[in-house]
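Write out this protein's structure.
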Amino acid sequence: MRNFSRVSAVVFAGTVFAIAGCNKGPQDGVVATVNGHPIQRTEVDKEFKAQVAGNPQQQNASTDQADAMRLQILQGLVGNELVDQRAAKLNLVATDAEVDAKLAEMKAPYTEDQFQAKMKAQNLTLDDLKHEVKRSLTMNKLINKEIDSKITVTDADVSSYFNAHKAEYNILENQYHLAMIQVTNQVSPQQSGNLQGSKATNDDEARKKIQAIKNRIDAGEDFGMLAANFSENSDTAGNGGDIGFVKESQIKAEPTAFAAISKLKAGESTDIIPIVDPVQHKTLGYSIYKLISKENAGQRDLSDPTVQQAIRQQLHDSRSQLLKSAYFEMLHDQAKIQNFLAEQIFKNAAQ
């Protein structure tokens, strides 16, 4: 979906469309057929306009560049149609109930007005969103049935990978997996990045806001939800404040923060920590950190469940990607595809 995590548009790397050598031309408005099913020019144009609107650099694209974009878009639409046809054959098309459940999950973090505003900003109608959600769920069901269910990662696979990459599991210094809620006292033209659109505009507002958040944390409210709703760090608010693993040496560059973080146990959060400009020594805002976990320096052993799970997941994902590429290529090879748009562009350019 356009920025709703852009639910699926299948990309077939290295795929070349078969251009049918028949004399019969396309029906009006049809740019391709997949096993006889038409793909309309309006579908290509709609996606083209959406891509151009989201990328100012493409708004002045040359004719050749625009044609190349349309061919790429059509390639994705053909891929989608191949998936839809295969899923229908295997009775794996997402049901209306599954689509409704997914939409309810997507809407849960927002008020109705916020959700409608997000769709409007991305030029999505509810029907558009339902269509893309259905296609995404259908794709997931097909991949689970035809690909992921066939992948097995054995203990021997995990052991072999660990022995070949042992150095990767030697942590040179302590690392802290952190989440953060940040409030600044700076006026900014940029959006706050949180679900509530909440932004302090001066130091008094910032202090009151961060204290209110701290009170809610102390009362047992979920740190991630508070970050998503109120943190003013647009890079992390959407992830519930999660900033990933940070090396100890990086944290030590901010002594006040390190002194607070180093005392935490997993699941605990710091008091309010001022954000200070290192040059002008002015307070720019306030942060609260939560320690999710800590990784001590040293060589990790294969007996560590975390290491095993990480390797197992990496091997699974790598094999899944390989099988997807092969699977989609097979679907393409087994299909009858007529790309009238490609024929038209080639003929026009060759004149």
